[in-house]
Structure formats: structure tokens, C-alpha cells
Amino acid sequence: MRNDFISKFKDLVSKSSSIVIVPSARIDLDCIGSAQMMREVIEDLNNSSFVQIYADFLIDEYHKFIVTEEFHLLSESKFDLSNFDLAIIVDGNANSITKHNKDKTYKLAKDIVILDHHNKDADSGSLEFIDTEYASTTELIFELFQDTKYSQSYYENALVGILGDTASLRWAKSKRTFENFYKIVVHVDRTKFLYDNYSKFLDRELMNIKNIVQQHVKFEPKYDFDYLVMSLAKLKELKIEKSNFDKVKDIIFFEYQSLRDFNMVLSIVEAPNNYIFVSIRTNNLKVLNATDIVELVKSNFLNADGGGHLKAAGCYFPSNDFLGDSEKLLSLLKNFLEKENITQ
């Protein structure tokens, strides 16, 4: 599979005079790192090709320490990349980008390559390499093209992508990830710089959001079966900016990361604009995987969408009744767990 993909990928890149790289719609260290790594891979394979990175987000202060390439901002009104011969989507897929902003008009290149470590969506590229066993897309790209030696920046991007998507390797799923992490580290001279800036990134982000959570949000834990539910009521009244909303969810799991005795940690969050967000973390894949819960939500709530990994996933749906829909979800989950005989 790997060799076949690389052969076809090289063929597509070699015949393309203009290539656009599009990271996922949500900004994080993995999508930034994988986009920058992919640019270097392309330039090594075809140095005459015109290559640009287009993103649907602005680089903020939390992520700028790793940015070395220019990220062009897509138009607020349209998303037209049809002038490029080839579009390479990293850390996401065409559906995840278009669904993120439904009010925009999207046009992609004729040929599309998808490189991702999330579960496959309904859409398909001309060529794709999707494997959920990788901890990050930067790890996936590193392993695919590890036979070629690249710049320091390339390995730095690979490093922070893994750190960011695994919470400093806390959520790393496999021995392979640790092995790849070691292979990457030996290429990096600026490990102290990266770790220092990554630590500052986490400290700034988590302390800021932690203060918001502690001041305004009450945890209401419920213990049933073998899972913990944290309902964060009235969150939208805090007027938390949309860009900070995912960080609010993240702090929940950092606060509860010691709950290793639970098979699942679930959060139900009332979000701005009358949406409910559901985040899932699972510890024991022999018992339960997070994507099963996502599918449960998508099949029972109108216009629900989401995805993720076997151990970490999330979904969302519009709602004007947070408490009512939360109780409905908990009832569905209870029935699902009973049906699957998932108990203590």
C-alpha cells in the first residue's frame, strides 16, 4: 500500500505545474506541520512546480512559533482552487473543509490527494492515504517519505505535530508512534527551543481557558455504567469566542486525564450559536471505540456531523434544547451500552 501510494503520488506531482496544499479547517499544530512538511516533499519531487499553501484560518499567536511558510487565507466568500493542477489536503478531507463553512462556495482542483489520520469520510480523492493508526498526519507523512533526508524544519514540524495531537504523547496509541518520535528527534537540533515554545503554547492556552472554566462553569459528574458525563450548562452565555471553544473542551480532558479507570470520558457542551458539541475519549478499545458514539449521535440527531479516531472523537449538532437533547443522548448511550453489554 505504501509503495503503491508513493509511486502514484510521485507521478501526480511530477506532471503538475501548480500545486496547492490545503490543511484541515481547524487550526492546530498537526495541520500546520503537515502542510509545511508536504511543501518540502513536493519541492524535492518537482522543484519546477508552483506550490502554495491555502488555509481557511489565520495563524494565531499560539501556533506561530512553528510557522516557516506563508499560509494564504482563502477568500471569505469563496474557495476557488480550480486553477491549480493538483490539490493536496492534509489532516482532513474535502468534506471536513466544506462542511466547516457551509456558507461558502468551494471549487477544488481536478486531481485531489488526501493524506489524513482521521476516519475516512464519504468523499474520495484521486489518490488518498488514510490510516487512523497514526497519531498525527505529520507522523504519517514522516513515515511515508522517511527514505529521503529533509531540512531541520521538516523534522521540527513532524515533532510538534505528534506532540500536539497526542498531548505530549499522553494519547499516543501505538509503539510505532514512539519509535517514529525517536527517529524524528535524532534529526532535530532545536529540541529545547521546540519544547520550550510548545510548553509556553500549552501553558498560555490552558491557563487562560482554565480560568474561564473555573470561574463560570460547574462540573456535574454523573456516574453510570463505566463512564463519566460532564455537562457544561449555559456555556454560550459566557460569550466565549468560537476560536476558544475547542480549548474549553480540551481543558476538560486535561483536568480529567487521571481518570484511567474509566473506559470512556464523555463531555456534552452547549456551544455558541445553539449547537451541542460532544467529545469522547476511550481507554479500552476492546470494550468501546469513540467513533461508535459519533455514529450513534449522527444517526439520531438531525444535521449531526463529526468524526475522529478510535480513542478520541467528536461530533456536533444544532439544538435549541440543551438539557432535553442531552438527556436524549444519555438515554441513547445508556441503551447502547446495555445492548453491547458494556458494564463495570
Please describe what this structure looks like.
The protein has 344 residues and is an alpha/beta fold. The protein is 40% helix and 21% strand. The protein has helices at 2-14, 29-45, 94-100, 137-144, 152-166, 175-185, 191-216, 242-255, 290-298, 322-339; strands at residues 18-23, 50-55, 71-73, 78-80, 86-90, 105-107, 111-116, 127-130, 221-224, 227-232, 264-271, 275-282, 305-308, 312-318. A 6-stranded parallel beta sheet has the order 3-2-1-5-7-8, covered by helices on one side. Strands 9-10-11-12-14-13 form a 6-stranded mixed beta sheet, with helices on both faces. Strand 13 (305-308) and strand 14 form a beta hairpin. Helix 2 packs parallel to helix 4 (137-144), helix 4 (137-144) packs across helix 5 and helix 5 packs antiparallel against helix 6. It is globular and about 55 Å long. The two termini are 40 Å apart.
Q: Give the percentage of residues in beta strands.
A: 15-25%
| Overall shape | globular
Can you summarize the main beta sheet?
6 strands, parallel
Q: Going across the major beta sheet, what is the strand order? A: 3-2-1-5-7-8
Termini distance?
40 Å
List the helices and strands and how they pair.
Blueprint: H1 2-14, E1 18-23, H2 29-45, E2 50-55, E3 71-73, E4 78-80, E5 86-90, H3 94-100, E6 105-107, E7 111-116, E8 127-130, H4 137-144, H5 152-166, H6 175-185, H7 191-216, E9 221-224, E10 227-232, H8 242-255, E11 264-271, E12 275-282, H9 290-298, E13 305-308, E14 312-318, H10 322-339
Parallel strand pairs: 1-2, 1-5, 2-3, 4-6, 5-7, 7-8, 10-11
Antiparallel strand pairs: 9-10, 11-12, 12-14, 13-14
